[in-house]
Amino acid sequence: MASDPARLVVELQEMGIPRGPILDAVRYVPRPAFVPPAERKHSWENRPLPIGSGQTISQPYTVAYMLQLAGVGSSGRVLEVGCGSGYAAALMAYVVGDMGTVTALEIVPRLAVQAAETLRKIGLARVQVIQGDGRHGYPPRAPYDSIIVSAQAPEVPPALLEQLAEGGSLVMPVGEGGSSSMTRIVRRKGGFERTHHGPYAFVPLV
Fold first, then answer.
1. Rounded distance, CA 70 to CA 141, Å?
2. What is the pLDDT of residues 44-99, one digit of tens each?
3. Active site residue ranges
4. What is this structure's pTM?
C-alpha cells in the first residue's frame, strides 16, 4: 500500500488515472489534513477511512476516477454533493484553478464546519462549503459544468439535473442496498445521456 503521495500517485496511474491535473492534485493536496488523528497513519493508503458521523473520506482512486468521468477541468464550475471531510472538494479546487469555482454541500453541520476550516487552513478558503441538503443543489451558482455526488441514492435528484449546464456532466453512484452503479449523465440539447461505469459502494445520500 502507498505510504506517501508519490507512491499513491504511481498506484493510481497504474489503475488507469492518466498523468495530468488530477494526479497533480492528489500529489499536492495533503490528505492527512482531512483525516482524523487516529487514522492519519493510513492517510496515503488507497482506501476509504472513517471521519465520524457515519461518513467516510473516499478512496483516492474513486475520487480521481469521478473527477475524470465528470470532466472536471481548468476554469470549471463544479458542485459537490456530500462534501464530508472536504478532501474531494480540495482536489477539485486544485484542478479548476483560480478561475474556476467549487461549491460543496454537506448536510451534517459538524462536518460542514470542519471541512470549511480544513480547507481554509490549507489555503483553499475559496471553496464555498454550504451546510444543507445536497439533493436541492445550490441554484445561486448554477449552471455547473460538473456535478459530483459523493453518496449513493436510488435515483439522481431532479434538482441536480436542472442545474447542470449544457454539455456538463453529473457523476453519481446510483443504486440501492450495499452496491451501486457509477453513473455519468451528460446534458445534451435533446435531453440527458446516461452511461454506467461499474459497481461501487458508497454511504447513502441523506
1. 18
2. 999 999 998 788 898 999 999 999 999 999 999 999 999 999 999 999 999 999 99
3. 58
4. 0.93
Say if CB 171 and CB 195 are below 8 A apart: no
**Contact call for residues 146 and 72 (beta carbons, < 8 A):** yes
- Domains, the chain, with CATH or none: 61-200 (3.40.50.150)
Whole-number Å distance between alpha carbons of 186 and 75: 19
CA dihedral 24, 121, 110, 148 (to 10 degrees): -20
Residues sharing a CB contact under 8 Å with residue 180, sequence separation 6 or more, in sequence order: 152, 173, 174, 199, 200, 201, 202
Residues 127/58, Cβ–Cβ less than 8 Å: no
Q: Are strands 101-106 and 128-131 parallel, antiparallel or unpaired?
A: parallel
Q: Measured between alpha carbons, how far is 35 from 136 in angstroms, rounded to an integer? A: 27
